[in-house]
Amino acid sequence: MSSVFPTDSVGLVSPEVVHFDQPLQLTCGRTLDEYHLIYETYGQLNATASNAVLICHALSGTHHAAGYHHVDDRKPGWWDTCIGPGKPIDTNKFFVVSLNNLGGCHGSTGPNTINPKTGKVYGAQFPVVTVEDWVCSQARLADHLGIQQWAAVVGGSLGGMQALQWSISYPERLRHCISIAAAPRLSAQNIAFNEVARQAILKDPDFHEGNFTEVGTIPKRGLMLARMVGHITYLSDGSMGEKFGRELKAERLNYDINNVEFQVESYLRYQGERFSNSFDANTYLLMTKALDYFDPAAQYDGDLSATFARAQANFFIISFTTDWRFSPARSKEIVDALMDAKKNVTYLDIDAPQGHDAFLIPIPRYLQAFGGYMNRISV
């Protein structure tokens, strides 16, 4: 691409890494004695550090949410449609922080990094982490950056769950919670999809009980299948039908069960292949388990209203009509609980055909509403 970036881009960005040697007690009972987090920032922190916005990523997200790492990058960060000058999260106004969570595989301490106690890659020995653990580590990152209170914590899907957890764990440290295409906990069906994906990885002969790095293999087939299963749930039936229908890869059926016949098969195999070359299998297992474990109301006998009783933030909850992975009904559960707890909440259900992935797509009404809310946040 040209060395001249779009005018609404944050332009060239460089990740930063911060090391923490204060032990982190994890929900699972284990402790990380030390760890590091990789993150990016966009915009400028104001003198009172009151304009900071935290971006929480979803299952396969990274710290690279906006801008470009090199002048010849073909694609910007994963949420570039929403972050930048004049965009919903306007970097002329906000100082934006985006990190790769603990257990990730894109630069933060995780299964594919070195365990300082052994000098070897953590692999299967990396501890189970939860949304609560991520929020705790994010709070330490905020301390490092001199941010006592976020103007907003924002996330979609699993990121939206982190935003909700922030309002519960650190109610005084955020003014606005923006949770998009999320849920208060996973349904049995969602847990089932995650388990099928995990089994695809666990049963891959190249997985070696999570220690595949030591033997020089990658559970590629398992990762491909896991991504294919996941990707189906991110799209709606209508969007898949509109995009692929029953279009054939070739001019006619070949009646060959071993080869690709339909365009949708080709698409899923391509997505699986690409994902298997860029994502760590142990991280995938950890992330899907974090999704399964998220249930903040469990500590309040299942009472979601009581869960939000201590929250101080204003809430913006967004759902999408064709999202069947985290349906609008799940967002309405959150909204109802917040209203019962007498919290300030704004809710919008966007009519969009793209399914769960809609939160990543520049749908005009979505961007307009998102930007309208962000514009009203005082800094």
UniProtKB/TrEMBL annotation:
Q: In which pathway does it act?
A: Amino-acid biosynthesis; L-methionine biosynthesis via de novo pathway; O-succinyl-L-homoserine from L-homoserine: step 1/1
List each copy of the AB hydrolase-1 domain by range: 51-359
Task: Name the domain of life.
Answer: Bacteria
Q: Which Pfam families match?
A: Abhydrolase_1 (PF00561)
Q: Where is this site: Important for acyl-CoA specificity?
A: R325
List where the protein spans the membrane.
Answer: none
> Which keywords has UniProt assigned to this entry?
Acyltransferase, Amino-acid biosynthesis, Cytoplasm, Methionine biosynthesis, Transferase
Instruction: Check the record and name the SUPFAM superfamilies matching this protein.
Output: alpha/beta-Hydrolases
Task: List the Gene Ontology MF annotations in alphabetical order.
Answer: homoserine O-acetyltransferase activity
EC number(s)?
Answer: 2.3.1.46
Residue positions binding substrate: R227, D357
Spell out the catalytic residues: S157, D323, H356
Q: Where in the cell is it found?
A: Cytoplasm
Recorded catalytic activity of this chain's protein = L-homoserine + succinyl-CoA = O-succinyl-L-homoserine + CoA
Look up the coiled coil feature and give its residue ranges: none
**Subunit structure, briefly?**
Homodimer.
Family, similarity comment? Belongs to the AB hydrolase superfamily. MetX family.
NCBIfam families assigned: homoserO_Ac_trn (TIGR01392), PRK00175.1 (NF001209)
The entry's function note states: Transfers a succinyl group from succinyl-CoA to L-homoserine, forming succinyl-L-homoserine.
What is the protein's given name? Homoserine O-succinyltransferase
